[in-house]
Predict the 3D structure of the following.
Amino acid sequence: AQKVTQAQTEISVVEKEDVTLDCVYETRDTTYYLFWYKQPPSGELVFLIRRNSFDEQNEISGRYSWNFQKSTSSFNFTITASQVVDSAVYFCALDGGTGNQFYFGTGTSLTVIP
Amino acid sequence: SQTIHQWPATLVQPVGSPLSLECTVEGTSNPNLYWYRQAAGRGLQLLFYSVGIGQISSEVPQNLSASRPQDRQFILSSKKLLLSDSGFYLCAWSVQRGLTDTQYFGPGTRLTVL
């Protein structure tokens, strides 16, 4: 079965703090893809990153970084020096390689307090 | 570049009334198209996806239907709305590939059924 768990429902941090959003996934596929999306208050989901199951290298993009660990089935997302504009709901998603079925977690609502 | 449009942006409808939500994509050909619903709990539920004109796959049985009359047009419909149909409806597209590709989301339609 395919499943994504985001155990953190809501997180609040003070501006400039670092914050890590957890994502744990379940799949029996050997080839799969993981994604992170950001949903600001406007509602549109904004694509942040895609990672395939054969690439365990960590990725850094500005203040964002992602830690993919197959051994623990986790794909965690860290925001460094958080800003108010980072306030949003963040979704982790899994695709088993068919391209037609994304499994989304329930999202983590991040509030950055100025 | 590719863009995805949805309309209307917001809609308030009485129970039992019909529904038609439209999604169009520009700047790409033969995309995969998807309809998702996001209820108050924030999770995304895949409703329909389409790999081509007239080809619709339903993921969840409900009183909704989808159609794809043109390559880049995807329509979500209902003959009689229920209170439980309230939510945020998101359309997404992806490039058709052998495995997977990132899904890109539209701005969404917020539907309230009274």
